[in-house]
Design a protein that fits this description.
This protein is mainly alpha-helical. The protein has 3 helices and 2 strands. α1 crosses α2 and α2 packs antiparallel against α3.
Length: 112
């Protein structure tokens, strides 16, 4: 059976379960926004393509590329839902833990 004949998983599947730890209060809201944004998107055939898709979607939603932006965090009002660091998104956490977690989930999903 070829990939075209198989049921191709959607990117939203990568986001369950949610991580137990976040960097800042805006991170879980970004996680859910990414999941919703990519909910109807097929998982690409390669890990690199999936990571690129995640990075582009993150940049569109947050307005900052987590890989090239040297800032440790950014404030985004749309992710502010109360609390001391409300609306703060940890680019460090996305760079170091959350995007690698999603990439690993893609690797597992794509294993033959």
């Amino acid at each position: 059976m070829t990939r075209d004949e198989a049921i191709v998983p959607k990117m939203a599947e990568l986001f369950d379960p949610e991580p137990e730890r976040w960097g800042l209060r805006g991170d879980p809201h970004v996680w859910r926004a990414l999941r919703d944004h990519l909910s109807r998107t097929d998982v690409p055939a390669s890990v690199d393509e999936a990571v690129s898709l995640l990075r582009v979607a993150f940049s569109e939603l947050v307005g900052a590329d987590p890989v090239t932006n040297a800032e440790t965090s950014v404030y985004r009002e749309q992710f502010a839902h109360g609390g001391m660091s409300s609306g703060m998104v940890s680019l460090d956490t996305w760079r170091d833990r959350l995007l690698p977690l999603l990439a690993e989930r893609v690797r597992v999903l794509l294993k033959p």
